Amino acid sequence: MIGTLYFVALLSSTMAWGRVGLWSEGRNETGGGGGDRCTCDAFLPSSTFPIKDLVAVQQAAGEISHILDLEMGKMEDYETKLTVYAEKIIKLTVDIEEMEKNPDAYNDADLEDTKVEIKQVEALIKELQLSITGSTTVFESLHIQITAMVVTLNRLEKTYDKNVVLATRREYIKVQLQLEECERRHQELFNPNIGSCAHTGIIKVSKPIVSQLNAHLNSGYKYGGWGKDSKPVPDRESMYWYSGYSSGSIVDIRFYTNYKNLILRNHFQHYNLHSGWIGTGNNYIIRDNTLYYQINNPFGLAKLNFTSVKYDSRVIPRASSRFSYANSPNQNFDFAADETGLWVTYATEESSGRMVIAKINEPSFGVEEEWQTSVYKPGVNNAFMVCGVLYAVRTVDIQTEEIFYWYDTKTKQESYISIPFERFQEKFSNLDYNPTDQKLYMYNDGYYVNYHLWFNHTAKATVEPPLVLV
Question: Of 26, 147, 308, 376, whose CA is between 20 and 30 Å from 395?
């Protein structure tokens, strides 16, 4: 006769996650007079939901949001001061010019008043300089914290129910957008040199700024690119684009109205590149609402305008398909855009694999001029253009890249430098400079990553960029 059926559930005292994972059945013959007993033990998984990790991310998001509110308040204060002091400087300039023209019309008291006003302006300048340094340090620290948040949230989403993590990810998106807005305001106030080439070159690259995993939520999509239009059409100045795939092929592209929608994966346009338009190489860019990219049949350059949906292609007879970047095959042509226009780099058999820089005429899609460099393309991970200067990048170690070489197309001079910067993941397939915000955009093992650049604005640009060791 079968006796009482009962269940013994071994429950953890902490918050357990998941359904009952294992049932075991057994028969006990030794019950004291109670007959046979059938026991079933229910075991819950040994892993528990890491609520502490989630709470830590939420707390970090709150702290970052508070810091950014303070930074925005500082900038609003400086904006007011700058307006007032700009008016003072104009008035001072007029007063000083009048004093120089007619010194006898002014007494010692007038001169003392003018000196006081000059000192007030000098004090504000010093205050702003300290603020720039302080805010930059704050932003770098916040980017490190946000990167850690990204890693934690991605780990939790892969392991646990995404709906549970969603509320915290919303907090992350909020602080990410706050930081983006704060940096934009800071840049507008303290960096009026966007679009200017009155500098002597790059002197520093920031820590990697990691947005998130690609829009496909697929870590297998290691090939691709993302960024902003380097010459945006009206009303699309805030637009971002993304394309990714599991191989080097370019099969589609998505457009997002702004950074927020990029983070939320909410695209407003999606183009599939059908069989006649599919490209390769992962060295493509968007410029003037046009995709510039490499094709293999025939081997050459292609462009697809998304406004007119017009396709065009060109062949450069001397360009070789044998020489690619070190990271991956088929990166034979590399498009780039800077303050001076559109470029493409490649290697030829005549150059024995050394990189050639070509300036592209955008309306005709033809090559205007070429420059021969001495850097061997298979020894380069990627390259980009800034103000007519080619910068080449190579790997230093498992975590570090280095801008190691430049070539100036204006002077035809070249040299080796060392400006190291950090990668987020081991390999990347796309690295491009955007002149609209002076940032580097990297597609790093499926993640959106970007970098701030610092330039030497301390003196007028000379004919030869300096050798900078950082």
Answer: 147
